[in-house]
Write a structure and sequence with these properties.
heterotrimer, A alpha/beta, B mainly alpha, C alpha/beta, A: alpha/beta, Rossmann fold, 2 domains, 6-stranded mixed sheet, 3-stranded antiparallel sheet, 11 helices, 9 strands, 38% helix, C: alpha/beta
């Protein structure tokens, strides 16, 4: 399943004197089972892009196609699951069952299959169904609420998952859990993942491809090494390259024999340890 | 989107003689204008009222587009009012009839007058909010209501509530837009099916909206308490409204408007 | 001085959130309170200005007690609070009116309020935005308005409850810049609740909280050198710190606790 944006632009209040352009001429093609991170600071248009990719809004110019098709009737791509930023803010159900079943029911999944789907989705997000299914979603902690919200998207079983700042506001444990989930969804279930974030450090570990947005335009698109090379461009758009990559770069500038490929903490440590060890220092 | 449809209530920050007037003068003038609208009973009267509105708009230096944007939705209501009045007014000569529906010559005139009245009413009220900052508006309101606190009328609280409402309306509308999109992303359809279905479809929208509103209210109350807010007690005002001669002059003009409209009734 | 003395607190009786907390904070000191979600750090912050009152124990600020209802209002005039959600703490419909809200509640004269508001706008760099309504501000700008409000109240202490957790990194820098200024120029005491350890590095002292108990405190360098504690707390050291700890564990002891990128580069270059 392939997503294809061609010269897609989007403006809020298009055609009125208050028109506010949000995205400009975006060309983007995402293949099946890819993990793409979309990076930009607030106001760069990344959330608008997510909604465009999900078919929730239609481009004011250009096209968005999934496997060559435009969004279906009702204006949503069923194959795309979009997890909004702070998705726990959309909870409404009396029980977690009702909450998680909501999307699947809306898409007409037969009643007898729903229970099975809900149980699977809750298991996937690490909430034992027998303990949680009848509870009110409002009785949960913040982190658990987010898991329920994500489960309600998983229950629709979309081929493509878009997650808008999924780790925002979570502590380290919560973040770790989200990152592991993303990994699992891609590797074990073969889903395509589009991960929207403002945090370079966080995506560097998993994403093989990073798309950088600034002021509604795509300014960089490629593997992390390539993207972090363009330091000036990133700084100009209010983004930082990850600290480990910066450290390695600074040491290289001092003439130290390190590989520019090191961008995560682990990689940077390995490089530095190898260099120090090789130099025979105690 | 809801926020884009947001009509009256958005202050338009420019300099003009109307902007400079005391909010109390503008609130009273608007009240007088509204009452006068119900005094007039003929085209001369309506012409006068329309002229007063246009003159005020001109002096306020508001671009017509900004005023017009606020009136668009009201225009629909005006037209609706007009059409209703067309058919529910039975006096006069019948022009057209279909079963119980009758259209009379006087009915048409009456309908147009009613539509115009509603339009002018809202248009003038929107001039008030376009030329007065929310804080001036609520301060003015508080000051006008203050004499009533003798009879335990909570003037300060009402003004504070109005001000908070004005502050949060845009934020909550934005939030509502986001909730609609988020539920649509979960396959929800909002504007299809029977009445009952539509009401049911509102639940996933309204529950999150209310949950968020209550959370906001709680957090805001904490923030206010942390800033030593304890009702009107011991509180001073930074920008006290200042009454000038021009404000008295403005009100005198509106008093003359009442006189003129009463005189015009006789024509 | 803020004195937290033997404070216990529970939202419901069975599950105490704070258990015998003792902590003193000097004026002009910058204390970071760290801990995982649910460790009680926000609850502790709310004890200091009496938004929540201790079930037992006491909290005093400059000798005034939160348990005395008149003194409580005097405490709130001295202790300003910036909340996590930038959206829900601005009351007024424009930036300058919001900054004036606190001083108005204190019953100050209009001339004095003008002076305070101008000063706060200048220091936080919000002059250009003074007439803007809150809903047109970025999250970082909203938090700066909240900080300006604290300044206009002439508070002696500023408590911040995860003020940047909902912000982008570059907005985060703006907010931290404003806090630094207040700390440096006004000798304000800062209590900064966070689980972003980069930010805790700016503090003079770090207090680590877990399950309602203080489990460690000291300079950031000292507390963060204990990597087992940090991971037990479910927190993560900043990347530079993690690299220096890994290298220290591998035998380069001299690198332990270094959290600053420039410093690490220098020390590494000297090593080789």
């Amino acid at each position: 399943m392939q997503i294809e944006l061609t010269k897609a632009s989007y403006s809020y209040q298009a055609g009125s004197p208050f028109e506010a352009p949000a995205l400009h001429d975006i060309d983007l093609s995402i293949e099946s089972n890819e993990l793409v991170a979309i990076i930009g600071h607030s106001g760069s248009g990344k959330s608008t892009l997510a909604q465009l990719l999900a078919g929730l809004i239609l481009p004011t110019k250009g096209t968005v196609l999934i496997d060559g098709n435009k969004p279906s009737k009702g204006g949503v791509f069923r194959q795309v699951g979009l997890v909004f930023q702070y998705p726990e803010q959309q909870l409404f159900g009396e029980t977690i069952f009702e909450e998680v079943a909501f999307g699947a029911k809306n898409y007409g999944v037969p009643e007898q299959k729903i229970k099975h789907i809900v149980v699977n989705a809750l298991t996937e997000v690490g909430l034992p169904p027998q303990l949680f299914i009848d509870r009110s979603p409002f009785s949960l902690s913040g982190g658990q609420k987010r898991r329920v919200a994500i489960a309600s998207i998983l229950a629709i079983n979309p081929q493509i998952m878009i997650l808008d700042e999924p780790t925002a506001g979570l502590d380290q444990r919560g973040r770790r859990w989200i990152i592991d989930l993303i990994k699992r969804l891609r590797e074990q279930q073969g889903k395509t993942i589009i991960w929207i974030s403002h945090n370079m450090e966080e995506v560097a570990e998993l994403a093989k491809r990073i798309v950088v947005l600034s002021e509604g335009e795509k300014i960089l698109d490629g593997n992390p090494h390539l993207v972090f090379e363009a330091e000036q461009k990133l700084l100009a758009s209010g983004l930082d390259i990850p600290q480990p990559a910066q450290l390695v770069r600074r040491l290289r500038q001092r003439g130290k024999p390190l590989s520019a490929q090191a961008i995560t903490v682990e990689e940077a440590y390995q490089e530095i340890a190898a260099w120090l060890g090789g130099g025979g220092i105690v | 989107m809801f926020k884009e449809k947001l009509l009256i209530g958005q202050y338009y920050p420019i300099e003009s003689p109307i902007h400079r007037l005391d909010a109390r003068a503008k609130i009273l003038a608007s009240l007088i204008y509204m009452i006068t609208l119900f005094v007039v009973n003929n085209w001369w009267g309506y012409a006068l009222m329309a002229a007063v509105f246009l003159l005020n708009t001109a002096i306020s230096r508001l671009p017509m587009a900004a005023v017009w944007r606020g009136l668009k939705i009201i225009l629909y209501f005006s037209i609706l009012t007009m059409i209703f009045n067309f058919f529910f007014y039975s006096e006069g000569e019948i022009i057209w009839q279909y079963k119980a529906l009758i259209l009379t010559d006087q009915g048409i005139l009456h309908g147009i007058a009613m539509g115009l009245r509603l339009l002018l009413l809202v248009a003038f009220a929107s001039l008030l909010t376009l030329t007065t900052t929310p804080i001036q508006l609520t301060d003015g309101l508080e000051s006008l209501l203050n004499p009533l606190s003798v009879i335990k009328f909570p003037a300060h609280d009402i003004a504070m509530m109005t001000s908070i409402a004005l502050r949060f309306i845009p934020t909550i509308l934005e939030e509502f837009d986001r909730i609609i999109l988020a539920q649509r992303a979960r396959g929800a359809t909002i504007s299809q099916g029977s009445f009952l279905k539509r009401v049911k479809a509102m639940v996933p929208l309204m529950v999150p909206l209310f949950v968020a509103a209550f959370r906001r209210a709680e957090e805001l109350a904490q923030a206010m308490e942390a800033k030593c807010y304890r009702g009107g007690k011991g509180r001073s005002r930074w920008k006290k409204p200042q009454w000038h001669q021009r404000d008295s002059g403005y009100l005198i003009l509106f008093a003359l408007l009442v006189v003129a409209s009463v005189l015009l009734r006789g024509i | 001085m803020i004195e937290i003395k033997g404070v216990y607190f529970a939202y419901d009786e069975d599950t105490p959130v704070l258990k015998n907390i003792n902590l003193n904070i000097e004026r002009g000191e910058w204390v970071a309170i760290i801990g995982p979600n649910g460790s009680g750090k926000s609850t502790l912050a709310r004890q200091i200005n009496g938004l929540l009152l201790p079930d037992s124990g006491n909290v005093c600020v400059e000798g005034l007690s939160v348990l005395n209802s008149e003194q409580l209002w005097q405490i709130r005039a001295k202790v300003a609070f910036v909340f996590q959600n930038p959206d829900n703490q601005l009351v007024a419909t424009s930036v300058e009116d919001d900054i004036a809200f606190g001083p108005e509640n204190l019953g100050l004269e209009p001339e004095l309020i003008t002076e305070r508001v101008e000063n706060a706008l200048n220091i936080t760099g919000l002059q250009q935005l003074r007439n803007k309504p809150p809903h047109l501000l970025s999250g970082g700008e909203k938090q700066r308005v909240a900080i300006a409000g604290a300044l206009a109240m002439a508070a002696e202490y500023l408590i911040m409850d995860e003020p940047t957790s909902m912000l982008d990194p570059h907005l985060r820098t703006q907010v931290l810049g404003a806090v630094r200024q207040l700390h440096a120029n006004y000798n304000m005491g800062i209590v900064y609740v966070t689980n972003i350890l980069e930010e805790a590095f700016l503090a003079d002292r770090v207090v680590a909280l877990a399950n309602g108990v203080i489990v460690a405190q000291g300079t950031p360098e000292r507390v963060f050198a204990d990597t087992t504690l940090i991971s037990r707390l479910g927190l993560e050291l900043p990347p530079v710190c993690r690299i220096s700890s890994l290298l220290a564990d591998a035998g380069y002891e001299r690198l332990r606790g270094i959290g600053d990128l420039d410093q690490l580069v220098e020390v590494l270059c000297k090593l080789s």
